[in-house]
Design a protein that fits this description.
The chain has 519 residues and is mainly beta. It contains 3 helices and 24 strands. The longest helix has 39 residues.
């Protein structure tokens, strides 16, 4: 009996070993057959077929292959072994796999957006975009463009209104005066959003009202418009117009002595220019006209003094040629000729002040990208009067401007200018004014900006026997805090010192605080 038990145990062990060997063999075959089938199958690449091949019907052999593929394996119409675990697909007679019929993702010809042009294709001006548009590529042209603005058809309006409380303390000739006043300002820009050409209109105006103390108010306003016409790929035309109003300063040599309210100066400007690039050579021709009108001055006794003898027209024709020696540097030369014509042949002193003007200068324009750009020119300007009793007014001119950004959030602007100011004093031809100004803007925080400004102005009189040269220094600082997207708080302080030979000079200290609402 013991022998029978041993025999049955050995038989059970043999059955278990046979079952284990069979399972191991099946596992090895299951892993090896798919790998062998993939090794035997030829490698194919997807190649788009012509439209006619893509739309053609599958062959009978292909349909048979797809229909008879099963879990035990199959062969294609060409006799090639295929993997039974893969999904059957249709093929082409040359062995390549065509794109799926009607699949836009694989066939670009079926995708309507594959060859679609960008939204702004063909536009020379990119569209105005909102601040929250992540695809915005256009740099705002004005610092006030920090808000969306108001869209008016194809135009975008960005208005702002400012209300300030200002205190002014002045000392002139030992006489001290103080006044506190409110100043209301309106400012805005209107910019076109056209695919071609561009119209830009900007304006601002300021009105003052005395709250305490004595002193003359200083209202001022200006309005400018520029229409750019893209005539051709290398030709651009500009049509400009403008208006400006200011009150003549009581310290100006041409001001009326003893007047309670000085004359108001109205200035109208207009011009047209055409720029063309001849390869590396760049040419510009421009014509400008200016109309100046002076209102009556109010005297301390209540009467008024007419100053219409100072009304005049001024026209100038200007040409400029530059040569681009590199993408960053372009030397240039510029010549100008003009005419000044007064409405009245003689002024109140009996002088004929109409004149011919001539000017020329040479310089270089630089453009090193957003970090540094500007131009500097040195020249000569002469004004020849009709009245032989008046000497020619000639001057060496220095003009230029530089914009520099040493680091992100910091902008530095430098300017040089030379101008000729005609005189109203009998026997005096006029003065030459040289000005150097600088402005620095630094972003302390995302919503806090520091502003610094300095100006030096030198007024030179050729006839020193009649008037003395003077120098005016101006320095100022300010902070702008953006309370939110539509409201700014500003604070400013400014000091002005004027020095003149033969006098004690004058000082003016101004402080202000205000709010600016913008859209």
């Amino acid at each position: 009996m013991v022998q029978n038990v041993k025999t049955e145990a050995e038989a059970a062990r043999r059955r278990v070993n046979s079952l284990s060997a069979g399972l191991l063999t099946c596992g090895l075959l299951g892993l090896g057959l798919p790998a062998a089938a993939q090794t035997l199958a030829p490698t194919t690449t997807w190649t788009p077929l012509p439209r006619s091949s893509t739309n053609s019907t599958t062959t009978a052999a292909d349909q048979t292959t797809a229909a008879t593929a099963d879990a035990t394996g199959a062969t294609s119409a060409t006799g090639t072994a295929v993997d039974p675990t893969t999904t059957a697909t249709t093929g082409s007679p040359n062995g390549t796999t065509p794109p799926l019929e009607g699949d836009a993702a694989l066939d670009p010809e079926l995708d309507p957006d594959a060859n679609a042009q960008p939204l702004d294709f063909g536009r020379q001006n990119l569209r105005e975009t909102t601040l929250d548009d992540p695809t915005a590529l256009r740099t705002r042209r004005d610092a006030d463009a920090a808000s969306d603005g108001v869209r008016l058809g194809t135009m975008v309006l960005r208005p702002s209104i400012t209300e300030k409380l200002v205190h002014e303390r002045s000392n002139s000739g030992g006489e001290r005066t103080n006044r506190t006043f409110s100043e209301t300002g309106l400012k805005g820009s209107l910019t076109s959003d056209w695919s071609r050409h561009e119209l830009t209109i900007g304006g601002e105006g300021y009105w003052q009202k005395n709250l305490s103390g004595d002193g003359a108010t200083d209202p001022r306003a200006n309005l400018n418009a520029d229409l750019r016409l893209d005539l051709a790929d290398d030709t651009v035309a500009h049509i400009k117009g403008g208006y400006a109003f200011s009150r003549e300063d009581s310290d100006d040599p041409n001001a009326v002595s003893g007047a309670s309210v000085q004359s108001g100066i109205h200035q109208y400007t207009g011009g047209v220019s055409v720029e063309h690039d001849f390869g590396r050579l760049r040419g510009t021709i421009a014509a400008d006209v200016t109309r100046s009108q002076y209102s009556d001055a109010e005297l301390s006794d209540g009467t008024s003094l007419a100053l219409s003898d100072r009304d005049r027209w001024a026209g100038e024709l200007r040409g400029r040629v530059g040569y681009e020696i590199s993408p960053a540097l372009t030397p240039f030369i510029e010549v100008a000729i003009g005419k000044i014509t007064y409405d009245e042949k003689l002024d109140t002193s009996g002088y004929a002040r109409s004149a011919d003007t001539y000017g020329a200068r040479a310089g270089v324009a630089a453009d090193f990208g957003d970090k540094l750009k500007g131009e500097l020119g040195i020249g000569y300007e002469r004004q020849r009067f009709e009245d032989s009793r008046l000497d020619e007014l000639a001057a060496l001119t220095v003009d230029g401007n530089v914009t520099w950004s040493p680091r992100q959030g910091t902008d530095v602007d430098l300017g040089l200018s030379t101008s000729i100011d005609p005189s109203t004093t009998a026997g005096l031809n006029g003065s030459v004014i040289y000005a150097l100004d600088s402005a620095v803007q630094h972003q302390l925080r995302s919503n806090l900006v520091l502003r610094l400004a300095n100006t030096v102005e030198w007024t030179r009189y050729p006839d020193s026997a009649s008037s003395e040269d003077s120098i005016t220094y101006t320095t100022g600082a300010g902070l702008t805090w953006s309370i939110n997207r539509y409201l700014d708080l500003t604070t400013d302080v400014e000091y002005e010192r004027k020095e003149q030979n033969g006098s004690s000079g004058s000082d003016v200290l101004t402080t202000s605080i205000g709010l600016t609402a913008k859209r």
